Amino acid sequence: MTKTGYTFLKIVIKLFAFSILFPVAIVAIWSFAGRWSWPQLLPETFSLRGMAELFSSYSGAMQTLGSSVLLSIMVAILAVVIGAMTARALVFYNFTGKQAVEFSAVLPIIIPGTVFAMGIHVPLIRLGLADNIYGVILVHLICTLPYTIKIMTDITKAFGSKLEEQAAILGASPWQIAADITLPSLLPGLVSSGCMAYIISFSQYFLTLLIGGGHVKTFTLLMVPYLQSGDRTVASAYSFVFIIATLLVFIVFDAAGRKFSHDGHGYLFT
Amino acid sequence: MQLQMQNISVSINHKPILDSLDLDVREGELISLLGPSGCGKSTLLKSIAGLLSPQAGDIIMDDMTANDWPANNRGAVIVFQDLRLFPNMSVLDNVAFPLKIRGMDKDTRRSKAAKLLESVQLSGLEKRKINEISGGQQQRVALARALAASPELLLLDEPFASLDDNLRQDMQQLVLDLHREYGITTILVTHDQQEALMMSNRIALMMDGRIVQFDTPQNIYNAPACKAVADYFGGGNYINGEVRTNVFHSDIVDFPTAVPDGRYLALFRPPALRPVKQDECYRVIDMKYLGEKWELNVEGNRRLFSLSVAARPGLEIGGRIGLDFDINQAVMIPQ
Predict the structure, then answer these.
(1) What's the pLDDT tens digit per position in B312-333?
(2) Is A42 on the interface with B (CB under 8 A)?
(3) How far is A73 from chain B (nearest CA, A)?
(4) What is the pTM of this model?
């Protein structure tokens, strides 16, 4: 690359970093702001009100954060497993109804979330899956699967079956092939589709509210009313924790991927 | 391993690729599977290795029917043309992979893999990544990895096709040396006639999903079963005629021969024809200089002939010559 090209690239990267980090910084400052009126560049007073709200026992925010993270990790793992297996079936096998499966896999993206939620609510009530965690996991799964299936289909297609064939004729059993060849090769895809599924599930508001019926509390459910009410300090405090929690989960996913990969490289953070 | 393929048919997407094919490979033999692209050579290899199941026929390995044996239990290892090295492993780990899946402990398999790398002259590259070594070196890694699986049958799918001439000769010699050293029954897929003639105990020439001739290099070159076989080995000047009481009769040349009576094509390869200065009824239409020889095309008796001569003949394009047919070099192809 030429020197000008390189400089240009550096500027673009810095612009991207700025456009992400600047809003995060503002959210971070707002979390501790007491009074911050226009056109002041910095808050006039600082306060721990947001933090107090977050960490107080009465709000239950931290407890909800914990269960919310667990719920979304569960959804992410299920979505990745189902997505990877579906992708494998779509890429390597021919079966009747293959196109129907392919099409229905993207349907949840096409149908607006509210329409989908209203539609699925009644069947879930009948099945006894409304107002409980299982129903919420199920609807989150339906929302996340299109993404994991799509990502894993592309990765599986790119990986192909050649290396698996080679391992088989060298004497490897199907389990050995999966452990030594397929999984390490698909890991980047598994990690990124896992992150994708996690963030979709973690930020889900309306579906969780409707299907969970208030019995299933997630961090997003606590956060959204503050965003709507205009209490910026508390809303920012929630948002800030939301971002940090997500980042931490991504780091954990990446570390897990690193542990199972042969070359010890991470995929998101190097 | 002794391998018999009996009446094998394979179709892919309803397109027949192998058509009632028979092949019989003896223990310790190195045979070449020779044929034009798309004739089914790679499909045959995959069927042998168990990556494809034939719709009909039997695969018999050491007198046992192996049709239903899974690929990982056949003891037949393919070295593919695209090598298929594992990119997430080092050179050493690639070679050690077959040993690892056989449950060998880490130290033993590493030292064994290092020895195999030594036998393919790659010592010192153990820790490299696959993308950090050259194409020729990758080829050797693939070969060493195949040997690590202690195959009873080694299947090489055009392993030298992508190499330049020098590397190719080195690799050919390496494969011959390894074959001598380990005595593994080997099937070498190639579309290069010279390679097949030079390397193999026997050559199976494949065309359109069938084996048209399976014989020693000398026999397949000197006694082709049909014109297609002769064509594949370069062809030459065919003269249509008939043998009656041990004499070949045609409108161009008559000569005594030992073959039974019947219709034959007599093949005179270009070096079997010599320009002479009598009966000058042929006209030179083309002369090409090819380094060690000259190639001439002549026309006469409403036919075209090609000759190859060592020294520049005292001829010009348009000049007239006679032809001497060296009947000792005539190849008789039954029709």
Answers:
(1) 777 788 888 899 999 999 999 9
(2) no
(3) 27
(4) 0.81
